Records
---
Amino acid sequence: MAVPVTQADVVVVGGGSAGATAAIRAQQDLPPGRVVLLEKAHVKRSGAIAIGMDGLNNAIVPGHATPEQYVKEITTANDGIVNQRAVLAYASRSFEMLQQLDRWGVKFQKTESGDFDVKKVHHQGRYVLPMPEGYDLKKILTRLIKRAGVQVRNRFAATRVLVDRGRAAGVVGVDVRTGEVSAIRAKAVILCSGASGRLGLPASGYLYGTYENPSNAGDGYSMAYHAGAELTGIECFQINPLIKDYNGPACAYVTGPLGGHTVNARGDRFIQSDYWSGQMMLEFYRELHSSNGPVYLKLTHLAPETLGEIERILHRTERPSRGRFHLGRGHAYAEDSVEMHISEIGLCSGHSASGVWVNERGETTVPGLYAAGDMACVPHNYLLGALTYGHICAENALGYASRVEAPTDEADLEDQAATEQSRILAPLSRPRGVPHHQYEFKVRRLVNDYLQPPKTANRMTVGLEYFQRLRHELEEVGANDPHEVMRVAECGFIRDCAEMAARASLFRTESRWGLYHYRLDYPESNDAEWFVHVNLKKDRDGEMVLTKRPVEEYVVPMTREELAGYRRLRVHARDNGAVEGVRP
Amino acid sequence: MSVLEDREVAKAAQARRVGNAQTVRVYDVPVIVDLAKCITGCRICIDSCPVDCLAVNPETKKAHMRHDECWYCLACEIDCPKDAITVKIPFLVR
Amino acid sequence: MATQTTDELRAALSDPNATRRQLALIDRADDIGVEDLSALIAAAAGDTDPTVRRLAVGLLEELGDARALPAVVSALADADPGVREAAQSAVREFRGQGALHALVAATVHEHPEVREWAVIGLRELRDEAAMNALLTTLTDPVAAVRRAAVVSLAYLRNSGCAPALLARLEDEDAGVRRLAIAALARTSSPESWATPIARRLSDVNWQVRAEAAQALADSRAPDAADPLIRALDDDHWQVIKAAVVALEALRAHESIKHLLPLLRSPASDVRRAAAEALGHLGAEAARSGLIQLASDGDVEVRKAASRALDQLGKAQPV
C-alpha cells in the first residue's frame, strides 16, 4: 500500500510551546496551509504545559537583568559546558518574545503600574516572572495557530524523519485514531517534540505519573538520532525535586518569592547552591539520604493570606490536581509541610542540558532539520526558551527552504516511507503479543536499576546489555488498535533514549553537573580531559558512536573567579555532605 | 546432569517456542464520567486528553477512560462544558 | 466532526432541546467565524440554557470582535456562575476604540461585578480616554470595584491621578489601601507620598503595613526612618523584614542598634535580612552577633552572616 503524501514547505513536529511559535512564525511568510503542524495529542492541550504554566523562570527584562549576566549564570550553573552562542541567542531575543506574548494577550504578573513584575530567585539577576493566570496560555496559542492559517494535524504521531542524501526531507507518522500511516514532505523540518519524560520509572510504579507530560516520550530524541543528527549532553540527566508520590513540581519558583522554604526534617533550610543546577540536586539528594531527611516544602510559617495566594496559583495552573492530592492525604499548607522526593530521571534541556545539538540558529547537524524547546540542547531554556527558539528555528528554516532545491530521489523517499510504515504497523500482526505497558515497565525499571545516579561503569555496562536485549524483545510486543500502535512506537523511543543515556554516561569518565552525572567510580571533575561536549550520533553502519566536541571559546568571557565559583561550590557541598555509604 | 537440571534446560528451550498467553486484568482508573451530565456526541474531553486515554464507551455512547494512562492533569475535567468529569488521583499515587 | 454552515448553526440554536443547542456550538467551535457573530450574541444574551450561554460567550471571546462586548458585558451579570466566569475571561480580550467605549459605558452598570470587570477589561487598553471613568470608579460603593480601579488607573502612569490615589490610603478596605500604596510608589515621586505612606506603618492590617514598608525603601525620605524603626516591633515577621530592608535602603545608620537584636529573631527570614542590612551598613557592632550566626540552623542565615562579615572586613568600622 503506497503511503499517502502531503506537500508542505515547513513541517513542525509537536504542537507545544516551541511548535506553536515555530508554526505561527513560519506561516507568516508562506501561503496558507503550507506549514503543517503535527501533534500526537491536540494542540489545545498539548506539550509540557498542557494546563498552562505559573511563571517564567528565565525572562531577561531590561532593568532587571542583562543577556550577558544570564549567559554567565547558565554557564556557571552548567559547569562551564555550554554553547554560549546558543544561550546568548536566546537571551538576546527573550525580551522581544516576551513583549510579543504580552501583545498576544498572555497574562504575565504585572506591578500595580503595569510593568512586568520580575522576582529575584537567582543569585545575580532577576529572571522570574510569575504568571498566576497562566492557565489560559494554551487557549491563546491555539487561537494564534488557527488565525495564522497553519494546517494542523491533531492525533498524528510522527515517528521518523525522511532524509534525502543527508538532508531533511519531511516526516512519516501514524494517525492515532485511524491507524493510517502518511508522509509529510517538506524542505525544512522543525522538531519540537519535548523531553524524554518516560525514561525512568516513578517510585509509585505508575507509568504515567511522570514529571513531564507523558506524551513527551523522547520521540524527538529518537527521531533526530535516526535522521543522523548529533545529540549532546545525554549523560546530563534531568532530575527534579518533586512532591513525593504525586510527582508534580514543588514550585520553588512560585513559593520562593512568596516566602516558602525547602527544609530538612528539622525545618531548616540547607541548600548551599544559589541556583538551580545538578549541584543543587546533589545537595538535595544527600540531605534526603542523611539523618536530616526527608526534605520538605515548608509553608507553615506563612500568613493565611499568603497561603491563599499560593493555592490560587498552584491549584489552578500547571498541575492543579495537587490540591486534591493534599486534601486526599489530609494535608494543608498551614499545618503540614509537604514531603519532597527526587524524580525519576529524564532527558530535557528545559530544565537540564541534554538534547539534539543545535547552534544559535536552531540548526541541527542535519541540513534542513531544526530543533527547539525541551529536546534541543540550549541548557536550562525552559518555557520562554522554547517559545523563543521556536521562532528562531522558523526564521532560519524559511531562509533555508527558499534557498535549496526540493529533493529529487522520489523512489528512495517512497521506500523510506514504506519501510517505516511496515515498522510502525508490524505490532498489529501480533495482537496477542506482549502488551506495550509491560514492555515499557520493564525498560524503565531497568533504567532505574542501572542508570539512576550515583552511576558506575559496572552497573551501566550491565544495563546497556539489557537495553540491547530489549531491542529484540520489542519485536515481541503487539498492538490491537492505533492507540497501541502509538504506544509501541513510544516503547521504541524510550528504549533508544535508554541506550543513549547509558552510552553517553559510560563515555564521560568523570563526574559533572552535581547529581545529574555523578559517578562513584570517577567522583572528581576532570577539566583537562573532559571540558568538552559529549556528542553521539548514528553512523553509516547504524551504530551509536560517541565523540568529544570542544567547547567553543566563550563569547561572554568569564573571570577566573566566576569559573571557579562552581568548582568551589562542589567542593564545599562535598565536604558538608559526607554521608556514610555515599563517597564524596 | 540430574533430572532437575535436564528439566530446566529442556523447559528453557521450550519457553522460547511456546508463544504467548494472556489474561484480562482490571484496573481502577482515575477519570469518572457522570453519565447523566455527559452529552452524547460531544467529544471535548476525548479531544482534550494529552495522553489519548479517553474514548466513547460503545455501550453507553458516552465518554469513559479507556486506558489507565492518566497524567491527572485535569484537562478533561476543566474543558468539559457540563462539569461531568471528576478526576481522582490514581490509586497508586494518592 | 460535522462542519455546519452559519445558517445551520442559527437553525440549530433555535432547537427546543438544550442538548442539541449545546452540541451545535461544540461542533461549530473549530470553524467559528465572524459570520456567526449575531447568532452567538443572541445565544449569549438570550438562550435559556446556561451551558449554551457559556459556550457562546467562550466563542465570542475566540472571535475577539468588539461588537460582541455588550453581550459579554451583560453576561458578567448572568445568574449562572459558569457564564459569569466565561464572561470575565472574555472581557479582557477585546481591544480598540469599540472596546473602549463599551467598557467605559459598563463602568456605571448597576451590577457591581459588571463594573468591576469592565474596569479590569480597560486595564490593558491603557487608554487615557478612560481616565475620567476610572477616577469615578475609585469611589465606587463596592470595594472590589475600587480595588480594580486603583490598578487600572495606575496602569495609565499619569501622575495627575496621585491626589485621587492618596485619598485611597484612607479607604475602609485594606485591599484598596494596599494597592494604592503600591500604585503610588510606582507612579509618583516620593515627595507626594512618603509621609502619608509612612503613616500606613501603623495600619490595622499587616499586609498594608508590609506594603508601606516596601514602598518606603524607595522613598529616599530620611523622615521615614523613625516609623520604620517602630515597625521593627511588629507582631508580623513579614512587616519586620520589609522594614529592615527599607532601613538598609535608606542607609539609616541610626537603626543599627535596633537591628542588632533581630539577629536572634525566631523568624529565619528576619535574621537573614538583619544580617544583610548590618553588613551593608558596615555595622561593626554587629560583628559578634554575626559570628554567632555561623552555627545557625538555617543555611540562608549562615550565608548572609558570612557575606556580612566579609563586608565588615572590607569596610571602615562604623
---
Amino acid sequence: MAAMGPEGAGDWYPVDAGTTTVAVAERAALGTTARVVVWPPGRAGRALAAVDAQLALLDEQASRFRGDSEISKVHRCLPGAARSGSARPGDAPRQDAPPKDVPSPDATPLGSCIVSEGLAEAIAVALAAAEWTGGLVDPTVGGALCGLGYDRDFAALPQDPASEAAPPEPGHVPGWRSVQLDGRRLRLAAGVRLDLGATAKGLGADRAARAAAACVPGGGVLVSLGGDIAVAGEPPVGGWPVLVADEPEPSGPELGQLVRLAAGGLATSSIRCRQWRRGGRTLHHIVDPRTGLPAAGPWRTASVGAANCAEANAAATAAIVAGEPAADWLAAQGLPARLIAHDGSVRLLGGWPVIADGLVEVPAIRRMPAAPGGGPAGAARPPLCPGGPAWPRGAR
Amino acid sequence: MEHDNPEQPGWVRLPGYDEDPRYPRGADYPPDYRRGAGARAAGVRRVRQASNWTAALLIAGVAAATGYFAHHAPPAAPATSTVTTVPGGTAAGVHKPSLSGPVATSSGSGVTVGTGPNGTRIVTYRDN
C-alpha cells in the first residue's frame, strides 16, 4: 500500500489494495463511506484534499440530516415548508417574498429564496433526473421518508420493537413539479421537503473525481461514495477494476461480478441496505413516489453505468422504483445495467459485460436532459414514466 | 504513339507545323524532318509513360492511406458511441498501473469489499 500524503488529507485511513501502484484511502462521509483511489500514488495527498473540500461543500449544501446545512435552512425559512424547527434570525439563504404569479401544482403558496450555486446545481440535477424518469426519481420524497421513520442519519435510527404495532403510513409526496428553480432562485410549495439522496451522492462523486483528477495531471482518480463511483483522468490499463456486489456480505455465487470502468460513473441502488423495521414491516430507503411507500418492484438491486455518476445513480434508483418496465427503459437508453431480482436471478442489459473482468462501456454522451443552468445533454430519450406518475395528486 | 496520326477532323496542329514553306502539308517530308517527328513522338511517349507511373503510384498511395485510416482512425462520437480504454501507454512519464483485484465496490450504500493479506477478500458493511 502506498503511503497517503499528509498534506491536507482529513480523516482518511489507508486501505491495503495489494499493490503499490495506486493509493487507496477511506473515510466516513455523507452518511456512508468515501473511498478514493489515485495513481500515481505520490500525489494522493493533494487529491484527497480536493475530495475533502468537495465533500464538505456538498454536506454543507445538501445534507438533510444536518441542521446547519443550507437545505435544512431552506426548509426552515420558506413559508409553510418547515416540518421541523423554525426559522432563526440570520438563517441563510436569503428569503424573498413569495411570488404571486407562479401557482404551484397544489395551488399552495410558493416560498422563494436564493440558494448557493452549489445547492442550485444539486437541485437542478435532481429535477433533471425527475424529468428524465417521468417522476419516478423524485426529490420531494423527503417528507415521506421522514414519515416512514428515516428522519435522521441511518446509523442513529432506532430499531424500536415497540413500534411493531404501528403500521407505516404512506407518506405524502408533493411531486417534483412543486419545485421550481430559475438560476439560483428556488421556489418550493408549502410543505415540500427535499431529499436529494437519489442524485446527490452521484453528483458528489462526479465533483470530487473531477477536482481530484485536476491535482494529478496525467494520472487518474476513482471516487466512491457508498458504492456510487465516478472516475476521472487516465484509467489504469484496462480500466478501474470494480466489484459489483448485491449482498452486504456476499459469498459463494452471490459474491458479485468484477468489471472494469474506464470513464463516467457506475452506481448501484439496492433495497438490501438501509433497512429498518416499523409496524412489523421491513422498510427500505427507496420510496416509490406513486405510493409514498418503499418500492416493491421485482428488482432488489440495480447497477448502472452512465456518462457520469449522477446519471448512473438516478437510473439505478429509477430501475428499483419502476419495476419490470425498467428493463426496456434502460435498454432504450443504451445504458449498461445489471439487475438482480428478488430470487437472485441476474439480468444483463445494454452491453453490460457478460464475462468477468469485462469493460462496462458507458455512453460518451449523457442521457439525462439538461438541468436548469446545466451543460449540454445528449439526445432526447423517452422518459421512464411518460407524462409523469399516473395517479391522482394527493392519492396514496 | 509510334507514328504521327493522320489529320482528323477537329484536330489542331501545334503552332509552326506547316509554316515552313519547304514542307507544305501533305508533302513527302525529307528524312531530317521525319527524325524530328520521331523525336517528338518519343518525347510524347516518355511523358505518357511517366504519367502512367505517376498515376499508378498515386492510386497505390491513396489505397494504402485509406486502408490505414480505416483501421487506425478514432471513431466519431455519435449518440450511441461508447468510451473505451486503450491498453498500455504512459502518462506524465509514469506507466499506467495494471490492477487485477477490485479497488472499489459498487453495491448498496455502505458495503465495501477490500483485499486483505494473502489476497483474502474482506467485506465490510458500514453505514456511518
---
Amino acid sequence: MSEIIFITDLLELLLEVFIALVPLIIIFIIYQIFIFKLNKHEVLNIIKGFFMTFSGITLFLYGVKIGFVPTGKYIGEVFGNSSNNWVLILIGFILGFAVTLAEPAIRVLCNEIENASSGYIKEKVILFTLAFGVASSVAISMAKTIYGLPLSLILIPGYAITFVLAIFAGKDFTAIAFDSGGVATGPMVVTFIMSISIGLASSLEFRDPIIHGFGLVSLVALSPIISVLVLGIFYRLKEQRKK
Amino acid sequence: MKLKIINYIKDFFLDLLKTVGPIIAIVFLLHFTFIKFPPQVLLKFLLASFMILLGLKLFLKGIKISLLPIGEKIGSELPKKKSISLILVMGFILGFSVTVAEPDVRVLSSQIDLVSNGAINKNIFIVFIGIGIGVFLLISFLRLLLNIPIIYFLFAGYLIILVLSFFTPKQFIAVSFDAGGVTTGPITVPIIMSLGLGIVSVLGGKTRLADGFGLIGIASIGPVITVMLLGIISK
C-alpha cells in the first residue's frame, strides 16, 4: 500500500518539477534557434545538464518531503507540547550555527568578502560571525514563536538598523551585505529549520501557525546583512586611519 | 574503474558528513536526550538525507553545465542588441522563470498551502513570487544601466514594504517576508549573478564588485511586495 503511494507521489513530483522547468527550457529553445546557434555537441551538453537539474531537484524535493519536513515538524511539535519549550531556543541556536558552517555557499561568500576587503576581513572571522548571526536569528525566531512576539516588531527596526549601517559601510560592502542575506537562507534552513518552526507553532496553544510559524527565514536573512555591514564599517575605519 | 567508483562513493559520504552531518548529529542527539523518535521517522530521515544530498549535487552540477552558461551567454548577448526594452523584458522573463524552478520557493509554497489548508494556493503563491522577482530584476537591470547607487532602491523598496505591511492581513505578513528570503536559492543566485556579470562585462568600465552583486539584493525585495499585494487582494 505504501509502495503505491510512494510511486504516485514521486510521479506527481516529477511532473511538477518538469512543469517548473518548462519556462527555462522554452527560453533556451528560443535563444538557441534565433541567437546562440550552438553546435550539436554543446546542445547535447545542455540537454544533459537540464536532465541532471530535473532529476536533482526531484530527488531533493522528495527527500525534503519524506524526511526533513516531517522530522522537523515532529521536533517542533514535541517541544511545543512540552513544558520546557525554551530548550528549543537553545537547540535552534546550535542548529543555526551548525547549518551555516556547513553551507557551501556561505564559504564561497566568505572567501569573496576576504578578497573584497583585501585580506583585512579574514575568511574564518566572517564565517564565525555569520554563523553566530544566523544562530541568534534562529534562537530569536523560536523565542518569537513561543512568546508570541510580532515579526514586524523585530524585522522593521532590524532593517532600519541595516540602513543606518549601510550609510557608513560604503557601496561595495552594502551590495555584498544584502546579497549575503540571501545566501544564508539555504536549503537546510528553509527545509528543516523552518519545519521545526511550523511544527512548534502548530502545537503551541495560543499560536496560529500561519502567523507565528513562518518568519524564521526572514530573520535568518537579516542577520548576515548586519554582520557584513558591521565588519565593513570596521574595514572602512581601518582604511581611513591609514590615511 | 572500480577505484573511481569507490572514490566517488567515499567523496559522497564525506560530503554527506560535511553538509547534512551536523543536522543528522543534532537529530540523533535529540533522540537520545529529549525526543524519542519513532524508528520509521528516523529511518525516513536518514534516507531523506541521502536523497537530499544526492539531489543537491545532481542539480548543482546540472545547473553548472546548462543554466549557468546560458545565463552568461544571455547576459553578454543582451547589451549587444542595444535595445533597453529588450533587456528589461528579458530580465522579467528570466527572473520569473528561474524563480518558478527554484526548489526553496516550492518548499515554502507547499508549506503555506498545507498550513493554511489550501486557503493560500501553492501555484498562485509561486506565480506571485515569480512576478515579484521578475519585476524587481527588471528594476535592478535598469539601475545597472543607469548606474544609480543601490542604496536608493533598497531604501525605496523597504519603505514600500513598510507601508504595505499596514494593509496586509496578519496571515500574510510572516510568509511574505519569508518569500523574499527563499527566492535567493541555489538556482536563482548563480543564474542572476552570471547574467549580471555577463551584462557588466560587456558594458565594461564599471566596478564589477558593486554592480554584479546587488542584483540579488534588490530582486529579493520584489516577492515580499507581491506576496503582500496577494494578501491585500485576497481580502
---
Amino acid sequence: MARYIAKRILYMIPVLLGVTLLVFFIMHLAPGNVAGMILGENATPEQIAALEHEMGLDRPLLVQYFDYLVGLLHGDLGTSYTTGDSVTNEIMARFPYTVQLTLVAAVVSILLALPLGILAAVKQNTWVDNVSMVVSLIGVSMPIFWLAVMLILLFSLKLNLFPVYGADSWKSIVLPAISLGFMNMASIARTTRSSMVETIRQDYIRTAYAKGLSRKTIIMRHAFRNGMLPTITVIGLEIGQMLGGSVLTETVFAWPGVGRLMIQSVEGRDTPMVMGCIILMTICFSFVNLIVDLLYGAVDPRVRTMYR
Amino acid sequence: MKKFLSLKRAAALCLAVCMIAGLLAGCGGGSSDTSDGGAAAEVDTSTLTVALTSEPDYLSTCDHDSLMGVQMNLLTYNGLMRIDMETLEPVCDLAESYTQDSDTEWTFTLKQGVKFHNGDDFTADDVVASIEYAQTFPASTTYTGAIASVEAVDPYTVKITTASPTPNLLYDLAYHYNFILPKSLIESGNDFSANPVGTGPYKLAEWNKGNTITFEAFDEYFDEARKASIPTLEFAIIPEGSTRTMSLESGEVDFVYSVASSDIERLQSTESISVTDVVSVENFFLYLNCVTTDFADENLRKAIAYGINREDIVAGALNGFGTPSYSCVSMGYAESTDENAYTYDPELAQQYLDAWGGDPSTVSLDIICSNDTKTAIATIIQAELAELGITVNIEETDDATYQAAMRTTDLTSAIVSWSPANAMTYVQRFHSDRRNQTPACLTDETMDAMVEEMNVTMDDAARSEMITDIIAYANEICPFVPIYQVNYYRAYNSALQNVVCSATGYVDFCTMSWS
C-alpha cells in the first residue's frame, strides 16, 4: 500500500511539470503587456521597457520558465506582479477559507445526496423516486448565482439569521456552503441512484432476500457498499473542483477564497499568481484522486488486492 | 396504476407550489422588507463599514495608480498639499503656507507638531526623503519629473526647484506619489504596503487579504478640523453589486462605494438609505486612430461625432445613469466649456460625410471594448452609424489586450475613459508628445503651440483662460468623440453625516460622522 501511495505521489511530478509548462506558455501567448498593466495608461515605452527589464520579462521565455522551475524546486512560487507580495503568502492567506467552504459544502451535499439517491433507488418508479430526482434536477439546472441571491434574500434579509457576506464567523459559511452543496448534491444523488438501481438488481441481492435478511441490512450492508464506487468518484471530483475555488459562490458571498484570487490574477496577467493557483489546484486534484482510489480499496476488497 | 399517476400528479403539484412560494418569498420579500429600513435599525457608531468593489493591490504610495489604492492612501498619508474634494483645487495640508519665489522656485513652510503613526516628528527632512524616494519609481515620472531638486532649508522649511516653469506643481504635490513618509522608515526599507505609516487621520489596524481592511483613528492627527470622528473604519471587499446592496439593506455595511445601476432606484426609494449622485469628471470617449486610418480626416471624425446620439447611449447602455458628454473635456472643471461641442445632428453628420468625400461603405470602424458596458455602448454606436452607411465591428477584449493595443497604431478605435484631477492635466493630453503613450492620437501643430504656452504660464487667471481656449479648439478639430460622463452613485445609511464625494471619484471618510 505504501509503495502504491509513493508511486502515485511520484506520478504527480510529470503532471505538475506538464501543467506548469502549459500554463506558463499560454499566459505568455496571450496578448497584453504585464509591465504596461502595472504602470498604467500614462506609462511611456521607456518606462515599460525599464520595468520589464527589472522584472526579467525581457529574457527569453525558456530562461524565464527554467528560472521559475528552479524557484519552484526551492518552494518559491515567485512574487505577484500586481501586489508585489509572495505568491505563497497570498495563496496561503486564502486557501484555508477555500478548504473550510469545500469541507462544509461537501458535508452538506453528501448528507443530502446519499439518502436522496438511496431512497430514489429503493423506491424506484414511485413518487418518492420522482420527487428525489426532480429535486436533484433542480439542483443541477438552477444557476448557483440565482440560488445564492435567493438564499441571502430569505435567510439574511427576511429572517435575519445569517450574514449577507464575509467570512468572520461560523454563521458566515452557512449560506455559501448550502448554495455550493446543493448544486453538488444533485450530481451525487443522481449517480448514487443509478448505481444503487443497478446493484439492487444483482443476483447476490436477490439471494440475500431469499436468505431472509432484513431489507435494511441488505440495502445498507450489501447494496450500498457495492454501489458506492461511482459515488465516491463523483464526490472526489466535486471536492477536487471545489478546492480549486468556487468563483461564483465566492463572488456572491464575498468569500475570500482561491477562486476569486485566480480570476483576478488571470485578468491582471499575473502569471506567477495564476501558476501558483493552478499548481495548488493540480496538487489538490491529484491528492483527492489518490484518496478516492484508496477508498475504492477500503470499500471493495477486489481493488485492495491490486495495490499489492 | 391509477393510484400511482394520481400520486405523481400530487407530488408534481406540491413541488410546483413550493417552488412558486419560494420564488415569491425570495423576490417579493426582499424589497418590501427593506423599505422600512434594516439599515437604520441599529447602528454601531464606533465603526463605519464600507463595501468596496475591489481590493487595492497596495497600501503604499508609489507602487500603484489605482482609485482604490489612492482612496486608502488618503486615510493614512498626507501630502504638502491636498485636493479639496468639493472644489478640486489644491489647498495646504502638511504645508502651513507656500510662496513662489520665481517661475521655478517654491518655498513651503511646514506645519509644526505633526506626528507620524510611529511617533516620529514630521520635519523637512521627511519631505526631501519622500519626494526623492518617489522619484525612484518609473510610474511616478508624470508627477515628480518636473521637480529638479528638494532642499531642507531648516527643519520646517522646504525649497523646491523645478526644471522649468511648472504651474501644475501644487496639484502634483497633492498626488499620492508625493505623499510624505517618515525618513527613518524609507531608510530602513520599510514595506509601506504592509505597514503604511504616514501622518494621516487613520492608521492601519489589520489587512485580512481578500476580505477586509481595517483602520483605526489616529488620536494625534494634526488637523483638528479633519480629525476622524468614527474610531474604526472597515472596508469589506464585496465584488458583487447585488450583495453590496443587500449588505447595506441588512445593515451589515453602512456605505456602498459603488452601487450597481440596477439597484439605484430601489435604494433611492428606501427611507433609511441615502444615495448621492455625483456627475464625475470621468469622461468616456471614442478614441480614433488619426494616424493610419481614414479617421485622420477631420470631416469624417466630425461626421461620427454628430452621428452619435449620446442620450440613446445613456438610456440604453447605462440604464439612464450617466450624463451625455459633448465636449472633449468633461464639464465640471472651472475651465470647462461646451464651445464648438457636438450635439446629435444626423443632417450635419451627413454634411461632414459628404465633405469628407469618401464612400462610407468602405469605412470600417472596429471598436475595441474591454468590458460589458463598453460593448453595450459600441452596440448602440453600431446601430446609429449604420444610418450613415458606416460599418462598426465590435472587438471584445480583456483589459490587458486593450491597454496593449492603445500603445500601438494597430487599432482603429476603442472606448476609453479618463479622469484627471484637473483640467490642465486633461488638456496636456492633446499635445503630440502624448503619441509616446498613444501613438494613434491626433497631432496638431496649433494645439501643440497652445499647450506649450499654457504649460509655462504661471499666472492662474491667464492659464485658466488658455485652458478654456484649448478645450474650444479641441472641440473644433475633434481629436476623439466624447460620449458620456460617469455618474458616481454612493449609497449609505441615512444616519451618516458630512458625506463628501468628489467628482474625481474619491470619498472623504475622515469628515464623516454619525448623527
